[in-house]
Amino acid sequence: MAALRWGRGAAELSRALRAPGHPCTTAKEGILGGLWGPRMNSSASPCEQERLKDWSRVELLEVLEARVRQLQAESVSEVTVKRVEVARVPADGGRAGGILPPTKAQPKVSGGWARKLDQDQQVLQRRQKLLQEKLQVHGQFPAPKYKPKFKFKAKAKGKAKPMATDKPSTKPVATSTATTKPMAIVKPMATDKPSTKPVATATATSITLAAPMVTRSTAVPSSNPKPKAIPMTAPKTVATSTATPKAQAKSTTMSTAEPTVTSMAVPKAKPEAMSTATPKAKHVALAQPSLAERQLVSKQQASKKYRRKGAATETEQDTWEEWVPSQPWATSQKLSGCDTRAPLKLNLEQQAQQQRLQVFLECCLASGHVALAHHMLVSHLARPHKQCLLTQAMYNTVMLGWARKGAYKELVSVLTMMKHSSFTPDLLSYASILQCMGRVDQDVAVIQRCLEQMAQDGLQLEQLFLEETLSNEERAMLLRAVLKAEPNFRPPQPSPQVNTSVLLSEVYAKEGPVSYPRLHLPLETLQAMFQQQLNVELASKVQVESVEKVLSPTQETLATRKTLETLRRTWEAKLRNKLQATKAHLAEATHQGRLTLYPFLCVLPEDELVQMLIQLLFSLPAQGEPFVHVVHRLAVQTFQRHTVQQRQRRGQLQVLEQRYTQYLQLLASDSQMTDPRLPRQHWEALGPPEPLPPQLWPLTELLPLGKLLVEILVQSVQLPSSLAPPQSTSQPVPVLYHVYTFRGVRQIGLLRPHPAFIKLLENAAEPVLIFEATDMPMLCPPLPWTSSQAGGFLLSATKLIRSVEGSVQHLHLLENCPPAELHGALDALTQLGNCAWRVNGRILDLVLEVFHNKGCTRLGVPPPTSEAPRPPVDHLPPNAPPERKAQLRQEVARCLKIAREMHGLRQEALYRLSLAQHLRDRVFWLPHNMDFRGRTYPCPPHFNHLGSDLARSLLEFAQGRPLGPHGLNWLKIHLVNLTGLKKREPLRARLAFADTVMDDILDSADCPMTGRKWWMEAEEPWQTLACCMEVAQAVRSPDPTAYVSHLPVHQDGSCNGLQHYAALGRDSVGAASVNLMPSDEPQDVYSGVAAQVEVFRAQDAQQGVKVAQVLEGFISRKVVKQTVMTVVYGVTVYGGRLQIEKRLRELRDFPQVFVWEASHYLVHLVFKSLQEMFSGTRTIQRWLTQSARLIAQTGSAVEWVTPLGIPIVQPYHQESKLVIRGGLQSITWNSSVDTSQKPNLLKQKNGFPPNFIHSLDSCHMMLTALHCYRKGLTFVSVHDCFWTHACDIPVMNQVCREQFVRLHSQPILEDLSAFLIRRFCPTDSTEPGAGHTHTTKLLETLRSVPQKGDFDLEQVKGSTYFFS
Q1: Of 117-121, 482-486, 871-875, 884-888, where does mean pLDDT reach its minimum?
Q2: What CA–CA distance (Å, rounded) separates 1273 from 1293?
Q3: pLDDT given at position 212
Q4: Are 1132 and 1191 in the same domain?
Q5: Would 506 be classed as within a structural domain?
Q6: 471 and 390 share a domain?
Q7: Kind plus residue range of the DSSP H or E element containing 814
Q8: Residue 954 placed within a domain
Q9: Of the N and C termini of the chain, which has fewer Cβ atoms inside 10 Å?
Q10: In this structure, is residue 1273 part of a structural domain?
C-alpha cells in the first residue's frame, strides 16, 4: 500500500509537470507530504553502511519519477485487487452494519511508454542481479537506499508473522492488507500507543518492489508480547498495514485508503474480525518501507491533516522539532542515512553544467514554470553523477518560486531535499519559508519554531528585511508571517552608509554652502515625461522616421508595400506555428530531465518573439551580417525584453511610479526641498531598495538561444516563386540564406537576405527605422545609481561596468566591495546623467541639407555608397600575366572595402540624424555608465556627445544660463579653440583674434552655405559654426550679459596623461612641459618633442645617416603628435611606427619609397626624446610594467583600487573558445575574459600603465563633477575635456585645479604598492623554492616605489593653461 500511496503522490507531480504553467496540484497531495514527519536515524553498523554504498545511488524522489512515467503513460502491466470480505464503515458509522461490494482496478496500457518502462526495469533488474550476487558472497543483503521500482505482475501469498506492541489494543483498528512477494526483512516493531478507534481494513494484492526493502511490521492485540520476525529466506509474505482514520505523526499508520481497494467496517464488539488474509495469524506483518519511504509517507500524512484542519497541529510542532537537530545541523543526515560528504571540486565542464542548471532554474521561475524547475531539481538529485552539480542557490531558487505561489507543501519538499543534500538553510531559504507562511496564513506555533531554528543557525531576523532580492510585496508577506509570531517586531530601516574617503569629505559634508542645481521643468511636465519613457520601455522598441530622402510614393510603391504587408502576416503565422512546434518538442525533452532551451523560449509571449524576428528580418543589410553577431544580438534583445516584462509581472511599475514621483520633487523647478540631498541619497530615503534585476544569461545559453531563433526564422520565412526571379520553379524561395566568406584569413558565416527581398524593400521605401528602447536617449531623468546593478533606465537593465560579454571579474569585485566605497562613482554617474539636452535645430537643418546632397567627406558627412569607386570590369585574356591578375584582384578588394566602409559610415550618420530629427524640440537625457577603468560613457550608442564633431554640434544644454560679465569672452575663446588656429597663443591673443575675424564669424552665422564659408576651414567645422551662431546672437542682443546661452563651452586638458605622470613623480621638467606650472603662454609638449627630435635628426644627418638626411624639413608637430599623445597610454614601438607612417604618407612632397624606413627611424627618436624630457614618467611606467609582469606570472590578473574606491581588474586572459555545434553553422566565440585561463602576460604588463593613468583621470573628472554639482553648475565631460556654460567657466576651472591637487596630494603610488603587496604577496610563502623566489622578487619590486621629484603641486592652482 505504501507503493500505491507513493504512486498517488507521483501522479500529482505528473499532472503538475504536464501543465507547467498552471498551479501545481501537488499542493493537495505533494511530493514530500510535509516536513513534519519523524526523523529516521540509521542504526546500521559501519559494515552495513559500507555495503549500503555498494547499492546504486538511488534517491528518494526517483521513485516518484518512475511512477510519474507509469501514470503519464497510463501503462500498467497488470493490477489486481483481491476481493476480501471486509466490512466497510457505512454512513451511520457502522452502527447498522452493512457490506460494500468489492471493486477491481481497470488498467490501461500504452505501448511506447510501456516499452520504455520495461526497458528501465530490465536494466535495473540486471544491476540488481549483479549486486545481489556480490552481496550473497557476504551472506546477507543490505537495506537499500531509494528507488524501489514498482512491478504489477506477481501475486504473492504468505503468512504474516506477529509483532509485539507495548500495550494491547482495546478497540478495533482499520487494516489494509497487501499480498506481496518482496525480498524483505521483516523487523519487529512496537507501537507507541494502543489503538483505540475503529478503522477500515483493505486488502490489495500483486504489488512488489523491484528492489529489496526493509519492511516494517505492526501487530494487532495479542496475548503474546514477544515479537517474531520473518526470516529473509521466506519466499512469500502477506504484508498488512494498519491505519487509524485520523492519522497521528507517532502512530503506526503507513498508508491511506485508495479508491481501488475494498474496505469494510469492523464492528466494535468484535475486534478479532481484523484477520482477513491469514485468519490463523494473531499478528499482522507490515512490510516496512525504506527510510526514505517512511519519511515520505509520514510527511504526506502530516501535511494532509494540516490541510484538513487549516492549521498546524501539535504533531506538526513536534515534527519540526524532530526535523531540526538540537545544534544547527550538527547531526544533519541525508535521508539515506549516509554521512555528510565534503563538497567536491568540480572540473571546468561540471562548472559549466552547474551554471547552466542554475540559469535554467531561474529562467523557469521567470517564465512561471516552477513545477518544471522542481522536476529538474528532482531529476538531478536522483542521478548520483549529477548530485555534485546541485548548490544551495538552486534549492533557494525553487523554494522562492513555490513561495511566490504560496505552495507550502512543495516548498517543504524542496527544503527536505536540501537537508538530504547536506545544505543548511541560509538567509534566502528562510526568506522563502517565511514568505510562503505569510501567504498561506500559517499557524503561529510553526512560525515561532521556524524563527527559533533560524536563530539557532546564527541568522538574524532583521537581516531578512535588508535582503535586496526581495520585492516590496514579498517583504510584506514575510512581515505578515513574522508579525504573527512576534507582534512587536518592527522591520529595521537600512542605516545610511557613509563614505569615508578623504577626497569626498567635502562632497558629503552637511555643513557649508550647498546649491544643488534643479531642472528648468515643472513637476507636472516631468511626470508626463516619465509616463512617456515608461511607455517606450514597456514597448521595448521605438519607430523613428528616417531622414533618408524619399520621393512621393507612386502606385508601384504602394503596391509593393501592400505585398510586403501580406507577406509579413503570412510569415508571422508561420513563425508562430514553428515556435509552437519547437516549444512542444523541447518541452517533451525537458520533462525527461534534459536541460533544454524550453524555459528561455517561454520568457516572452510568442507574438513578441515573432515581432522580434520580423524586425530582425527587415533590418538586415543587403550585404548580410555575420551569423554570430545576429545570434548574439537577438538573444540579448530577448533577455532585455524579458527583464522589462518580469518587472511588470511582479507589480513593480506602481511602486516605481510612486517613488519616482517623489524623487522628481528634488529636481523639479516648482517644488521645495527643505533638506538638500544628492539624488542617490534622496532616492534611498524614499524606501527600501528594489529587487536587483536578473543577470544577463551566460554565453552558453545566449548563443544557443539566439541560434535557435535565427534557424526558426530561416526555416519559416519564404518568398513565393513569383517574386523571386528566375521563376524556374514553383517552390517557395527562402528569404534568408547562409553563406561563407573570408575576412582576411578568417572564414565567417553570413546571414544574407535574398536579392529579391532587398528589391522589395527598396521599392517599398519604408520611411521608418526601428530602435531598441535602450538605444534611445531617455525622455525623463534617469534613475540615480544606487548600486552596481540599479540605475539608469527605468525598467531595462543597465550595467554599471560595460565590459565584454562573459566577463564576470568586475561583477564579483563590485559585489564584494562595501557599498559606501562606490558612492563617489555612483553619484558622479548620476550627476552626468541628470544633464538635460536638446537638439540644435539650426545645425541639424544644415547637416540634413548636406546629407541629402550626397554628403561631404571634408565636413564629416559621409556620402552614399553610390559614390563609392566601382571595381574594374575589364575581362582579362586567358594569357594575362599573374602580376596583372593579382593587381586586378587587389583593386577589386580595395573597391569593395571602401564600399563597405562608406555604407557603415552612411548608416551611422542616418541613425544619428534620424534620432536628432525625432528628438527635435524635445528635452532628453543620456544615462551614463563606465568601463572597467572608471572612464564614463553615455549609454545610448547612436546619439550622444562623445561622437564626432558632427555629433557634438547637434547637442546643446536644454537649460540655458545668462552669459554674465565674462561669458561672451569665453564664447569667443572657445570659438578660436575650435578653429585650431591659435592653440599656442595666450588667451588674450585668442580673444583679440576673435574680434579681428568677427565679420567672418557673423557671415558664417548668417550665410553658412552661401557666404565666405570661413567656418569650413576649422578643425571642428560644425562646432565652429554652432559657436558662430551663438556669438552672433549674443553680440546682437540688447544686453549680451543677459543673453541666455545653451552652448556647451569646453576646457581641454593639456596632454592629460602626461600631466598625471608628472604629478605622480613630482617631475618639474615634465610638469613645465604639460602646463602644470604657471606661465604666460601655453606650453606645447608636441612642439617641444618635435624640436628635440629635430636636434637628434640633425646630429645623425651630419654623420651621414641617409634617412636622417631625407627627413630634413619634414619633422613637424603634426608628425609626432599622435605618438606623443598615446605613448603615455602604452603605445608600443610598433604602434608608434604605424602612426608616424600614416602621417608621412599624408605629406605630398615626401618620397614615399622612404616611408617605412623613415617611420622606423622616427619612432625611436620620439621615444628617446620623451626619455630626455620626462625621465620621471618613464621611471614610473617601467615600475608599473615590471610589477604587472611579475603579478601575471603568478597566474593572477592585475588588480587595484582607485583613490575613489572603485575596484579594478584587468580582464586580459589567454584566449578561450566556446563552440556551439550543429544547425546552420557551428559558432565559435573567442573570449579573452575567461578567468579559467591564464592571464595574458603581454596585455597585462603593457596595459597596466595606461589603464592606471586612465583610472586616475576618471577620478579627477568625477571629483570635479561632484564639486561642480554641489556649487550648482551644469557639468558633463568627454574624458579629459570638461563642458559647462560659458558663465561658469571660471568656477569650473577653479574646481578642476583644486581637485587635481587634492587627488595627487594622496600617496597614490605608495597606496598602490601596499595594496598589491597585500593582494599578491602571501605572508605564508616562506618555504624555499621557485615560487618563493618569484614572490620575493615581486615583493622587492613592489616595495621599490619610484622616488619623487621636487615639483610643488600647489603651483597647479595658478596655471592658466592646465585646462584651457
Answers
A1: 117-121
A2: 12
A3: 34
A4: no
A5: no
A6: yes
A7: helix 809-816
A8: no
A9: C
A10: yes
Q: Which of 745, 766, 787 is the last residue of a domain?
A: 766
| Domain stops at, among 992, 1013, 1045 | 1045
* Sign of the alpha-carbon dihedral angle for 50, 52, 55, 61: negative
Nearest by Cα to 1345 from 1317, 1305, 1304: 1317
Q: Predicted confidence band at 741 (pLDDT cuts at 50, 70, 90)?
A: confident
CATH code assigned at 1083: 1.10.150.20
**Strand 1281-1284 vs strand 541-545: parallel, antiparallel, or unpaired?**
unpaired
Report whether 239 contacts 286 (CB < 8 A): yes
Q: Which domain covers residue 555, as residue numbers?
A: 551-650+691-766
Per the structure block, which three cell numbers stand in for 501? 574617503
Cis peptide upstream of residue 726 (ω within 30 degrees of 0): yes
- Pairwise pLDDT comparison (48 vs 1270), residue with the higher score: 1270
Nearest to 1252 by CA among 1300, 1302, 1194, 1183: 1183
Sheet of 237-243, strands arranged across: 237-243, 174-180, 200-205, 263-265
Exposure b/e, 277-314, CB count within 10 A at least 16 = b: bbeebbbbbbbbbbbbbbbbbbbbbbbbbbbeeeebbe
Domain shared by 285 and 369, yes or no: no
Domain shared by 58 and 35, yes or no: yes
Residues 770 and 541 sit within 8 Å (Cβ to Cβ) = yes
What positions carry a catalytic annotation? 1052, 1121, 1280
For residues 1168 and 1217, membership in a common domain is answered with: no
Please report, for residues 750, 1111, 1121, 1134, 1174, the alpha-carbon distance to residue 1152 in angstroms, rounded to integers and kept in the order given.
38, 11, 20, 19, 32
Instruction: Please state, in angstroms and rounded to a whole number, the distance separating the CA atoms of residues 773 and 643.
Output: 13
Phi, psi of 719 (to 5 degrees): -100, 140
CA pair distance 1272, 1293, nearest whole angstrom? 14
pLDDT (0 to 100) of residue 1356? 94
**Residue 277 above 60 pLDDT?**
no
Q: Who has greater pLDDT, 551 or 543?
A: 543
Burial (Cβ within 10 Å: 0-12, 13-18, ≥19) of residue 1334: middle
Classify 640 as helix, strand or coil.
Answer: helix
pLDDT at residue 306 in the model? 38
Percent of the chain with pLDDT over 70: 74
Q: Is residue 511 part of a domain?
A: no
Distance CA 215, CA 294 (A): 10
Which residue, among 1136, 1260, 1163, 1251, has the nearest Cα to 1199 in the 3D structure? Answer: 1251
pLDDT the model gives residue 207: 31
Q: Average of pLDDT values for 1312-1333? A: 76
From 1267, 134, 35, select the one nearest 678 (Cα to Cα): 1267
Q: Which three cell numbers stand for residue 840?
A: 540644435
pLDDT at 652: 83
616 with 702, same domain: the answer is: yes
Residue of higher predicted confidence among 371 and 230: 371
| HSE-CB of 304 using CA atoms within 13 angstroms | 18
Instruction: Report residue 123 as a C-alpha cell.
Output: 536494466
Please write the tens of the pLDDT for every residue from 587-634.
999 988 889 999 999 999 999 999 999 999 998 888 888 999 999 999
- Total domains present in the chain: 7
Q: With CA atoms as reference, report the closest residue to 1061 among 1262, 1244, 1253, 1279.
A: 1253
* Same-domain pairing of 283 and 138: yes
Grid coordinates representing 111 are: 505501448
User: Cell 550595467 appears where?
Assistant: 799
- Residue 856: DSSP 8-state: B
Residue 846 pLDDT exceeds 50:
yes
Integer Cα distance of 1101 and 1093 in angstroms? 12
**324 & 429 share domain:** yes
Query: Comparing 315 with 392, which gets the higher pLDDT?
Result: 392
In angstroms, how far is CA 421 from the centroid of its own chain? 27
1161-1214 residue pLDDT tens: 999 998 888 888 888 888 999 999 999 999 999 999 999 999 999 999 999 988
